[in-house]
Amino acid sequence: MIDWLTGFFDRASGILWGTPLLVLLIGTHLFLTVRLGFIQRLLVPAIRLSFQRPGNAAGDVSHFGALTTALAATVGAGNIVGVAVAVGIGGPGALLWMWLTGVFGIATKYAEAFLSVKYRVTNERGEMSGGPMFVLEHGLKMRWLGVLFAIFTAIAAFGIGNMFQAKAIAQQMVGLLPDVNESTVRIVVGLILAGTTGAVILGGIRWIARACEFLVPIMVVFYMIGCLIVLALNFSAIPAALALILSDAFTGASIAGGAFGVVLQQGVKRGLFSNESGLGSAPIAAAAAKTRNPAQQALVSMTGTFWDTVVVCALTGLALVVTGAWNSGEKGAAMTSFAFNTIGGFGGIILTFGLVTFVFSTLLGWSYYGEKAVEYLGGLRIIPIYRVFWVIAIFLGATIPSSLVINFADSANALMALPNLLSLLALSGLLARESAEQLKDPLTYRRD
Fold first, then answer.
1. What counts of helices (H) and strands (E) characterise the chain?
2. Nearest to 274 by CA among 318, 326, 309
């Protein structure tokens, strides 16, 4: 049964991630970049705004709380394992397409957050609920498509935000503890992750945001320091690595058959898997933010793609190339371990800490996304049931074959992206007009 499912989702992923979706995703990134007047130009003031308190504005959490919750979900195993998967299958050239997906995806992340804040509603508990499902229902008057998006999100959460994460950390711990029975390690990892995650998500978005506000800055900075140490010790190899990435991006020469399409597909697919621009997940967290207008939180939200892909993924990918890890024969987390082990035992500690914290934070962030999706479908009464399944899935994720988990996650991601991208394109005119108005006075986004 497992083999059949693995094959099924492998074929489904290949079909869904064909040329049409790649063109739609990249095209949306480019179109919105132009339509919004290259919104990336406001990245610096947007970063400053991330740390400001919104005062008495409507919402559940601060700008920073919403951003770190979204970053918790996006900065996960995909930044370590996903980058290695992209390089392992698509070669070093995939890194350029992943990076460009992040640069232009900043505009898409802004658009998602803007519309999600604009069309958010207040639920029975007095909390904010928002996301592409509400945009599709209230913005496009297509509730049926909002329902489909919510279904895809609730399902996809178990792939990208749950089982894939648990699998990644379980594999890392098995490698670190070769003398301990593998099944025992996986069971212990699964139980610890399930227990700690369950304890936090019981408190809802406020508990999740508090945990993420504390954890995310520490884990990102610590991991970046580790990558910079690897690059510093291999400084002389950086020029050649950059040249290889650039040349391979357009030839695919480093992979069998020199398939350019594989390089492009892996770069874009893993870019979406990592930064989620166009996926429609992060704006669910953005909708909970205290903000005076949609543009404020949209600016804050778009910085998440910058930190995730333009910075963290780029550092991981460059480390894989300069150390030769990409051509070592290792796969996934083992490939990244190879790169970090070049700086000795300290490198293994940095990677393990990064992977553990990245995984835990992603489990928290995506649990919120999944809860909001099922809340949209059936109300608050379904959330406790969903949480039970969420915790069980964490445990199971440590034992299910990784190929099944990855292919399942990729397929579900594609199904989420399609209706979300449709709403962004259909409402781009409204988005551009209202953004221009709200961003006219710099004080609306530089200070409260």
1. 23, 2
2. 309
